[in-house]
Description:
Layout: E1 2-6, E2 18-20, E3 24-27, E4 35-40, E5 46-53, E6 57-62, H1 70-78
Parallel strand pairs: 1-4
Antiparallel strand pairs: 1-3, 2-6, 4-5, 5-6
Amino acid sequence: MANVVIKKENQIVKVNDFIDKKEILSIQREVQIGFTVDVFNEQKHFLGRGIIDPEKGIILLTKEKEAISSKFFEKKIKL
């Protein structure tokens, strides 16, 4: 999993937010479409976990440090 730092330091980032690639300051390592990433602000505070498309951005799926797996999606669908 890669760590991503974004510019949105003063904005509240919510679950299911789309973070445009223009907001990404750095990516810890090379990623491909669909990779799970941890998202941090410039002060290195954990904001959440999401899925990245390096050409478009990140969909934030959770504000918790939980595994993004089939069980994660099953739980979300049952809500």
